[in-house]
Amino acid sequence: MQKLSTRKFLNNRVVWLYIFSGGLVLSTILLGLFYSSVTIPIPTILHIIADQTLGLGWMQEVPGNEEAIIWNIRFPRVLLAFFVGASLALAGAAFQGLLRNPLADPYTIGVSSGAALGAVFVIFFQFTIIGLGNFTLPIVSIVCGFLTLMLVFGLVRLSSRSMAIETIILAGIIIGAFLGSIISLIIALGDRDSMMQIIYWLYGSVGMRGWNYVQLIVPFMLAGSFMLIIHYRELNALALGEDAAEHIGVNVKKGKIFILVGASLLTGASVAVSGSIGFVGLVIPHLVRLVTGPNHRHVLPLSMLLGGSFLILADILARTIIAPKELPIGVITALIGAPLFAFLLIRDRVGRGKTR
Amino acid sequence: MIEVKNLSGGYSADDPIVKGLNFDIQQGEFFGLLGPNGSGKTTLFKLITGTLPLTSGEILLDNTSLFSLSKLEKARKIAVLTQESHVSFDFTVEEIVSLGRYAFQKGILKSLSKHDKNIINDVMELANVTKYRFKQFRLLSGGEKQRVLLAKALAQEPLLLLLDEPTNHLDIKHSLYMLDLLKEWQRTKQLTIFSILHDINIAALYADRIALLHEGTFLDIGEVEVLRKKDQLNKLYEVDIRTQSHPKVPKPQILMTPRNEVSVTRMELGKAYQMKQNDDFIHLEFDQPLRTISNGVIGEGIQWVKHYCNFHVDKNYDCSSPKDELEGWMRDNGIPPEQAVGMMTAVQLKYAVVRTAKIENIQFITVVTAGVGNAVDISQEGDYEREYKIGTINTMVFVDAHLTDGALVNACMSATEAKTKALSDLKVKDPFTNTIATSTSTDSLLIGVTQQGEATPYAGSGTFVGKGIGRIVYEATREAIESELKRKI
């Protein structure tokens, strides 16, 4: 009897978590649309969104500038923040699951640095690959991110037979630092204008991007999320270790490639549209795991929802703290994320000490 | 079931660790792999699980090559349990066990079906981990973890289970629990088990067939009797190993001898003991334990013992639980029953005969108490209903010699023959049949030897030891009986 009720409670809890996260997403989106220097009433906002997306507006007249502010400036910004946050959190959760290490995230293992280098290249030299057009930026970014990942793994392979977690992080940091210095080199070689542009881009921002950037990230986000979410069972199995996962029937090699490619797609696309935004991929999955437990079936989707909401909130902070100027969003996420993560680490340790 | 042909492989193709192995395992068989560290056990295991690539040879499962199967097909037939029990993140026990159903999940959503859930519940029940179901795996003890991983392996409903030292970190309670569980599953579900084992005794008890791996090749394959071949085991492990039989099941068990275990100081048998004698008991305590064979109430069989005692009991002693009572008396007098042989007699202990002698440079001691009220001629038909009068011949013999187990039996024969001869020379009669008695109905005997010097396999009448025992026992027994007979007159 007791078992049944606990199980029901668990199921209920997960259902409630999804409801809560969904609600959080909607309310942060609304907050992001509402909260700004020009106040536009919420019914008007809802009308504009409904009108633009479904053609179901109910208001007779809406000032043209309000419509432009909401639809052309705020809405893409909020959506971009959501997509980037969701992508980074999902990529972080996948890397952590794959490497069996809560410290892994796109930044600690160097993927972001690689993607950033690719993006800086494209922005600095202003080139487009024929046939790709606007998608040159995200694709170069993704490919560079993936190549960096391979480079990191190659380095780990050379330095030790086992894919030890510590070695991966160490190699990621080394390669990240190396690529960072190449970016600095490019900046140093450029003129003042492009220097400012690149530096500001590197700090990370979702502002002033418009619908173009939303269009750039969406296909990669969908593809990457799909690839990762269908592999949730493999990620769970990998917690046993690669050999043991193989023994229960997981095609580890194939699964790993899918997960790495998926996570690189998400990271590369995010970095391409918004620059370097750290700590989302590290902290959000960690928090989600604390509440749901480690089952990737729930960790992956919930990380997306929470990561997206988190980044919308961070963006609101970024543009209000020193309004009318804006802070880079990467600064906000680091300022919130780093202490939070430190707290989680310590709490984890203390908690473990008690149970042992 | 599984057939391995000319299997070679290792970490590098030029220098394979296992070389040209051939063996097959029948369905429903528990196949144990034994060998010292570095003999290639784990390499062979990894070749079969597919973790390491083969250099040459093939592995057939039901006549199809193991490597033609997809990962999923393989996982539906073969489950693996290693000694590795690390799981990242805080997965619960149920989640871990559910992973065993990975290869069976169908549909786009790949969620657990009702059938999957039933199996998960069954195997958790069987492995006795249901009570930890919602507990985090990380918080379990080593034995519990291993049981959870076993449940996960069984959830795969395997035909073949591959085990790598499954009881490595477990205490004997959990080891036996786990192996009994496997044995049960083997019997009821015709599960085939291939297991690396590091404990030879465990292997002897649980494996149906055993292979001994030595430097990458098989030294021997066969039923547990391969473990009785002492020389082979000595070669394999380079340790002095002896085998003995388990007292309850017909399986060999091994005994190891540490290299530096030589006797501390040479014991002078005649001086190395204290004897205490009063109306209640006679107690001999030796400085060092002696290898002893006896049929005493306490300490029967072959043991190493330091304390020897003979307790006086009343003629009308009610012998319903002599063992417990004797233990109590020993403790009351500061004698540890675990290190003692204890006998009982109704004879007054002041009439005990103690003799020491040195015959052919061998030291002998004997202590005899004798009563012949109950003398029996063993060769005549007896009346088992007759009321026993108390009367017993208790004989202790201590010899400074090194006897094998067989020689100890020999020594018992020698002592018994001497006693019988004494009875016959004194014309002690079975009061019932009126023929010469051969013994009394409840005689006790013990032979204690120092195990110093060369080991001798014989202690019968053709040896100095046997002769010596015979002589000293005869004389002491005769004296004891004569004094008893005198008292009666």
UniProtKB/TrEMBL annotation, chain A:
Annotated InterPro entries: ABC_BtuC-like, ABC_transptr_permease_BtuC
Localization (cell): Cell membrane
Membrane topology: Multi-pass membrane protein
Domain of life assignment: Bacteria
Principal place of residence: membrane
Cited Pfam families: FecCD
UniProt keyword annotations, A-Z: Cell membrane, Membrane, Transmembrane, Transmembrane helix, Transport
Signal peptide range in chain numbering: none
One annotated Gene Ontology cellular component of this protein: plasma membrane
CDD domains: TM_ABC_iron-siderophores_like
Gene Ontology biological-process annotations: siderophore-iron import into cell
Transport in keyword set: yes
Family: Belongs to the binding-protein-dependent transport system permease family. FecCD subfamily.
Record protein name field: ABC transporter permease
Species per Swiss-Prot/TrEMBL record: Salipaludibacillus neizhouensis
Automatic annotation (TrEMBL), chain B:
PROSITE patterns for this protein: ABC_TRANSPORTER_1, ABC_TRANSPORTER_2
Keywords linked to the UniProt accession: ATP-binding, Nucleotide-binding, Translocase, Transport
Domain of life assignment: Bacteria
Pfam families in UniProt: ABC_tran, CbiZ
GO molecular function: ATP binding; ATP hydrolysis activity
Residues covered by the ABC transporter domain: 2-240
Name assigned to this protein: ABC transporter domain-containing protein
